[in-house]
């Protein structure tokens, strides 16, 4: 007998039709020239602007929080000892796990015949890998051999390719342009295999104008993992197991949030990764106050979630039936904003309108802002 699942918890309720031509394959000519759909959940009103216009929604005393993770060139091409080709997709920055001169990282291996434990892969004269262990899902644990952390970082930059999302299906693959454009202008801490794409729209000039308006800026570091693209395979979304990603929130960021809240300002989160980071940090003590933290973040946000830190959200347009859709739906429906349990409907209506108006979707696509009342 089928189980009755509330619409907000049913996977199929987060589906929408997206023509293939709506998926952006290249970035906009200029970062802040992307389009911006602004949703006001308290009324359901929508505005259609350019991304540079986002500055008009900030007020002096607000705080802009970004994710400063940096995408590293995680896709490597090597050869097995037999001479066969193998593609290595590192799922974690190897310099996160350093023991002396030993560097390990999980990876996806693509080859005509899967390498066995103990086998070696040569990437370059200065970089080789040993398969330590085969894992589930086609993954393997690798040890990377390089003379120093500095040399390893340099070899990855020289040999590696930017790991573009699977829905960017260009025949030419990643280009030199992608090394710059699939990276935020404030990216500073290597460790991600996917960009926090809501931040791709900001330019140094726009950030300077935001600063001049009296808006403070703070950062978290959440290394976006390949799990962000993992499909949800359960009909009741509450049963989904969210991926974990390494998170750091500094005392400086905590202090900035506390000052902003105390003065009545609004906290703006750039991207769903920043939302997860801040809300995870606010769940590290009984009082529900944001804390500095360095840990694996496994916070799963879906409708019914109570937000404690974030007031406004800047995000991109996300894949149908994805955990990112659940998060944004929950944010549209947060406490004291809009009609209860209508966040999902408002979000889907916004997406349908965006499709009809020719917005560009996903990582290199256009942006959306969910703005609450002042």
What does this molecule look like?
The chain is α+β, with helices and mostly antiparallel strands and 374 residues long. It folds into two domains: 7-71 and 178-370, QueA-like, CATH 3.40.1780.10; 75-160, Thrombin, subunit H (Beta Barrel). It has seven helices and 18 strands. Strands 2-1-18-17-15-3-13-14-16 form a nine-stranded mixed beta sheet, covered by helices on one side. A six-stranded antiparallel barrel has the order 5-6-8-11-10-9. 42% of the residues are buried.
Secondary structure layout:
Elements: E1 35-40, E2 45-50, E3 63-67, E4 69-71, E5 75-80, E6 85-90, E7 98-99, E8 102-111, E9 120-124, E10 127-134, E11 139-145, H1 149-159, H2 176-181, E12 189-192, H3 204-212, E13 216-222, E14 245-249, H4 251-262, E15 267-270, H5 272-281, E16 293-297, E17 312-316, H6 323-332, H7 343-356, E18 367-370
Parallel strand pairs: 1-18, 3-13, 3-15, 4-12, 15-17
Antiparallel strand pairs: 1-2, 5-6, 5-9, 6-8, 7-8, 8-11, 9-10, 10-11, 13-14, 14-16, 17-18
Helix pairs in contact: 6-7
């Amino acid at each position: 007998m089928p189980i009755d699942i509330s619409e907000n918890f049913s996977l199929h309720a987060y589906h929408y039709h997206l023509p293939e031509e709506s998926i952006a394959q290249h970035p906009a000519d200029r970062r802040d020239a992307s389009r911006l759909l602004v949703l006001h959940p308290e009324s359901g009103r929508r505005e259609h602007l350019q991304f540079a216009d986002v500055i008009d929604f900030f007020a002096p005393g607000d705080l802009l929080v970004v994710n400063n993770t940096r995408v590293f060139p995680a896709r490597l091409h090597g050869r097995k000892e037999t001479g066969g080709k193998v593609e290595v997709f590192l799922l974690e920055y190897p310099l996160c796990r350093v023991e002396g001169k030993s560097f390990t990282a999980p990876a996806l291996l693509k080859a005509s015949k899967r390498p066995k434990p103990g086998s070696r892969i040569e990437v370059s004269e200065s970089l080789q890998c040993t398969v330590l262990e085969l894992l589930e899902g086609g993954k393997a644990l690798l040890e990377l051999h390089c003379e120093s952390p500095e040399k390893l970082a340099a070899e990855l930059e020289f040999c590696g390719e930017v790991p573009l999302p699977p829905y960017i299906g260009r025949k030419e693959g990643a280009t030199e342009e992608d090394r710059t454009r699939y990276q935020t202008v404030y990216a500073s801490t290597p460790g991600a295999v996917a960009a926090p794409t809501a931040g791709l729209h900001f330019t140094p000039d726009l950030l300077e104008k935001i600063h001049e308006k009296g808006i403070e800026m703070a950062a978290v570091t959440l290394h976006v993992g390949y799990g962000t693209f993992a499909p949800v395979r359960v009909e009741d979304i509450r049963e989904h197991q969210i991926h974990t990603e390494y998170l750091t929130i500094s005392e400086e960021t905590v202090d900035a949030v506390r000052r902003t809240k105390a003065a009545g300002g609004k906290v703006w989160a750039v991207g769903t990764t920043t939302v997860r980071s801040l809300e995870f940090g606010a769940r590290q003590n009984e009082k529900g106050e944001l804390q500095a933290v360095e840990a694996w973040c496994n916070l799963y946000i879906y409708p019914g979630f109570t937000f404690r830190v974030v007031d406004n959200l800047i995000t991109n347009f996300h894949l149908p039936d994805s955990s990112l859709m659940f998060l944004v739906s929950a944010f549209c429906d947060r406490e004291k904003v809009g009609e209860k349990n209508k966040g999902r409907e408002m979000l889907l209506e916004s997406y349908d309108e965006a499709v009809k108006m020719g917005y560009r979707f996903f990582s290199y696509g256009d942006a959306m802002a969910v703005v609450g009342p002042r």
